[in-house]
């Protein structure tokens, strides 16, 4: 893959999510910008584990946010929106940080 191809691939989270983390081994050392950095963060965390698209998207979003690429994180969220609602994808209730109502 040449640098222009990488820039195109990593610019579109939807395309990157469709390809998945396993398909991009042995990448050239340059190209890809913010998407490449977020991808590198996500695959490092996953450490070769096979995960569903939604989980890969979650880690890709996390990587973008941690690295300060908020615009890219927004693109990831648009490409793979959270479908779990307030209780999350697993259905488990998440802890509330606000005051408890009685």
Explain what the structure shows.
This protein has five helices and no strands. With 102 residues, it is mostly helical. It has a domain at 3-20 and 30-82. Helix 1 crosses helix 3 and helix 3 crosses helix 4 (53-66). Residues 84-98 have low confidence and may be disordered.
Salient structural properties:
0% strand; globular; single chain; 102 residues; mainly alpha
Label the overall shape. Answer: globular
Q: Topology as H/E string?
A: HHHHH
Helix content: 40-55%
Mean of all residue-level pLDDT scores: 77
What amount of the residues lies in strands?
Answer: under 5%
**What's the helix count?**
5
Give the helix/strand class: mainly alpha
Distance between the termini: 59 Å
Compute the gyration radius: what is it? 15 Å
Low-confidence stretches: 84-98
Biggest sheet overview? none
Number of DSSP strand runs: 0
Explain briefly what this protein structure is.
The protein is mostly helical and 102 residues long. It has helices spanning 3-11, 13-19, 33-46, 53-66, 70-79.
């Amino acid at each position: 893959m040449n640098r222009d191809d990488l820039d195109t691939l990593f610019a579109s989270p939807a395309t990157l999510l469709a390809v998945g983390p396993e398909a991009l081994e042995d990448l050239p050392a340059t190209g890809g910008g913010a998407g490449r950095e977020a991808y590198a963060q996500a695959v490092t965390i996953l450490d070769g584990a096979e995960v569903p698209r939604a989980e890969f998207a979650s880690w890709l979003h996390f990587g973008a946010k941690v690295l300060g690429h908020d615009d890219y994180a927004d693109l990831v969220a648009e490409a793979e929106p959270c479908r779990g609602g307030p209780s999350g994808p697993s259905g488990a209730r998440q802890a509330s940080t606000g005051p408890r109502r009685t």
